Amino acid sequence: MQLALTDDEAKFRDELREFFTTEIPADLRERMRLGTLAGRDDIATGHKILNANGLAVPHWPVEWGGKDWTPTQHQIYVDEMQLACVPEPLNFNTKMVGPVIAEFGSQQVKERFLAATANLDIWWCQGFSEPEAGSDLASLRTTAQRDGDTYVVNGQKTWTTLGQYADWIFCLVRTDPQAPKRQAGISFLLIDLDTPGITMRPIKLIDGSVEVNEVFFEDVRVPADQLVGEENQGWTYAKFLLGNERTGVAAVGITKVRLAEVKQHAADKGLLDDPLFAAQLAEVENELLALELTQMRVVSGSADGKPNPVSSVLKLRGSQLQQAATELLVEVAGPDALPYRADGEITSPDWAQRAAPVYLNYRKSSIYSGSNEVQRNIISSTILGL
Amino acid sequence: MDFQLTDEQVLLRDTTRNLLSRSYDQDSRNKIADTELGFSRDVWNQLAEIGILGLGFDEEAGGQIEVMVVMTEIGRHLAPEPVVHAALGPGNLIADSGSDDQRSILDEVAAGQKLLAFAHDGVTSAAQQGDSWTLTGRKNPVLAGDSADTLVVSATLPDGGTGLFLVDAKAVTRHPYRTFDGRRGAQIDFDATGAQPLGAAVDASAQISDALVRMQSALDAEAVGAMEEAIRLTTEYLKTRKQFGVTLNKFQTLTQRAADMYVSLEMARSMCNYAAMSIADSNLDPVIASRAKLQIGRSGRHVGQEAIQLHGGIGMTAEYPVGHYTARLTALEQTLGSPAEHLRVLVDQVGGYGIVTLADT
After folding, report:
1. Is A111 noted as a catalytic residue in this protein?
2. What are the residue ranges of CATH 1.20.140.10 in chain A?
3. Which 3-state string (H, E, C) describes chain B?
4. Residue B256 lies in a domain
5. Structural domain for B126, as ranges
């Protein structure tokens, strides 16, 4: 057992830290830290700088722009990016559709999409959830009927994050309604959002933001060569994708930065001298270190690259601690959290005015990407054998 | 960064596990707990044969990772042998501070022939007359103090500071007792009792801090082993116990709570590794020890309570093991600093840094 990084790993970390803090514009990283990213442009700026330096898709196969890194190196990359407040490359591209195409797509699909996906020349969004298919994803009802060399898509997707910026959507669609198991009749289809028959409608959230959308499909004709892999194998690809999604989801670095912000404002207000508050903060910090160590154990033990069921622990605990940090920020803000987007004429500082919306927004983290109840089911069935 | 045990450490784990699973089930544990000594001399001797009672006394005798591996098994089997309190903890102090002559005691300790105890909680002062020293005061609780042959005692020095002394247990007044989890301890009174400085009669606060950090790490591991077994017992029970015509694992309200117990265990295990790996790396920072003990205290409380609740009434009975694990976890939580005390350590330094980090990794 050895806690410290090897010399090579420490050098790797230092190089990435240097890169992230010098090559990514400071104003962009500051907006990331404050949670005030300017929509599509800021995410695209960060993503394209990373890709120009070979750092947007390190976990992809090497021939499509990936790096032959160890699991520990991949974790260092994520941690350093989060600690430097670099907006992560768009995960719909890098963690979701990209790896699925690279793993299961035909050569022609790979050549058509992978480079453009890595460079964010195509902005992807996700079409999985439906109004009647949330945690029970396999009950999805959007259909794709084969008609010559096209599929005709009808139905509705929802919770499509950042769909308002997207060029394309990757969808799970039902291609065989008669399949004996409902998981067996699902396919993975790539759809240009400019195709006639698609309507994107924003969903306003409780924090006042528009982050997610509904997408309606009405007789949308999709070329059949935009199918990934084989027809009716989409569930397998989706499980592969969701496994990828969970491994980076502990967000330890992001929560560390937010707790440091909490601490800074608490110190400014003298709240850090209040033992009740200081104890709350110290306890959450400690729980975060326990999570970080757990992540290190998972990473160093997953040399085969397979999703580990303990990833569910990371998702569950990671979301809880992200939420705890946002709660503490509201507490530090106190009554100054009440004004919302008031102008600079009032005394409540901007960070305090943002605290409650961020807190409300982060209620999502224990719901998306497999709710915490789903994670507990995975733990109890897969790990505990219940 | 490497969390794997070496082949030798795996062998040590398996050997310890075999010995203890041969030696103990709840029935035999209950019987042993009712004896005057409260643990088995026979098991103690076998632990000595494996080399467990001398772990950490010198470089070749293994280090904190080995202690962690062994103590996890002690916890898993709820073995009553006071490995930390009667051997490793006070033994480490003698190894650190003792003269060559005093260190020779350690051979007997490692061989299982001499029992120690560290008398630390309480107020005792040291006085010097010529070349000889005496101690006066009271120590309580002294875990394993009931059966110790030799005591390592902390005492206030005439010129301030805290010194360490060796005292023959026959020279003190002992009030032995049982702890609520079936272990043993004593209140020990010193009344101008003859004592021998451990090494020189100088302030040993640093050595005491180091020894406590090592002992805390060992108890962390014991708690992790106890939690593992409490969760194993609970999941087995959920799979076999039937109510309303089905096994309990059909009730999601129970399986979701079992999943949360597992999360608590993994957080505890991570912190336990952190504490032991730091010590093995020669970093005996008490803040790291407090970080670990806080998390493990929280996890132990959660796992212990839920283990009983998910069992139902059977978990309350003395003949069934799970409640004993809860009792032990509760005792460990209150030994060498409660979670609240360790949280206070963290609160005292939380303003001293911005972003929280593990020690320089």
Report:
1. no
2. 249-383
3. CECCCCHHHHHHHHHHHHHHHHHCCHHHHHHHHCCCCCCCHHHHHHHHHHCHHHCCCCHHHCCHHHHHHHHHHHHHCCCCCCHHHHHHHHHHHHHHHCCHHHHCHHHHHHCCCCCEEEECCEEEEEEEECCEEEEEEEEEEEECCCCCCEEEEEEECCCCCEEEEEEEHHHCEEEEEECCCCCEEEEEEEEEEEEEECCCCCCCHHHHHHHHHHHHHHHHHHHHHHHHHHHHHHHHHHHHCEECCEEHHHCHHHHHHHHHHHHHHHHHHHHHHHHHHHHHCCCCCHHHHHHHHHHHHHHHHHHHHHHHHHHCHHHHCCCCCHHHHHHHHHHHHHCCCCHHHHHHHHHHHHHHCCCCCCCCC
4. yes
5. 116-203
B 295-314 residues with CB < 8 A to A? 295
Contacts of B5 in chain A (CB under 8 A): 1
- Identify the active-site residue in A80, A88, A245, A292: A245
- A and B: number of Cβ contacts within 8 A: 151
Binned average pLDDT, 10 residues per bin, chain A of 386 residues: 90 97 96 89 96 96 95 92 96 96 97 98 97 92 97 98 97 96 96 98 94 97 97 94 72 96 97 97 98 90 62 94 98 97 90 96 93 95 94
Read off the pTM: 0.95
The CATH code of the domain at A123-233 is 2.40.110.10
Q: What residues of A are in contact with residue B359 (Cβ under 8 Å)? A: 3
In this prediction the ipTM stands at 0.96
CATH number for the domain spanning B96: value is 1.10.540.10
- Pairwise CB contact (< 8 Å): B273 & A293: yes
From the candidate CATH numbers 1.10.10.10, 3.40.50.2020, 3.40.640.10, 1.20.140.10, the one assigned to the domain spanning A249-383: 1.20.140.10
